[in-house]
């Protein structure tokens, strides 16, 4: 099938070139028109080459899109969009790599010298000295009158 299509394309190229030259050349250098054909079965080959990393997207995309009948302008626009996407993806990967590296360095630093935890408990108030002569220390003012022996013997 591919051989038949290729031989038809060669014949069509010859006919189109002769017709174009007869109509438009008028003494100028003769041009040649080329009919490009790409069978759809080639897309699986292009996909296999791209997936295995043998060809990049700038080679694979035009081949695949051409086999689908896309115009040169749409192929160029698609390649530009893909380049922009690749640039954004690369920048995002670089940012993620820097964040991971900084986090790793912070963890290593924290492992070597752990951060000091701030004491959140309030200082404990010492009991007031005994001035009554009973031998017991007085409770702080905030605790006075709150216990069973609050000092009132009524």
Please explain how this structure is put together:
The protein is mostly helical and 154 residues long. It has a domain at 7-21 and 31-70. It has four helices and no strands. It has helices at residues 2-24, 42-51, 57-67, 72-112. Helix 2 (42-51) runs antiparallel to helix 3 (57-67) and helix 3 runs antiparallel to helix 4 (72-112). The protein is rod-shaped, with a radius of gyration of 43 Å.
Q: What structural category do the secondary elements indicate?
A: mainly alpha
Order of helices and strands: HHHH
Helical residue percent band: 55-70%
End-to-end Cα distance, whole Å, is 118 Å
Round the Cα radius of gyration to an integer and report it. Answer: 43 Å
Shape: rod-shaped
In summary, what is this structure?
The protein has four helices and no strands.
Can you lay out the helices and strands and say which pair or pack?
Blueprint: H1 2-24, H2 42-51, H3 57-67, H4 72-112
Helix pairs in contact: 2-3, 3-4
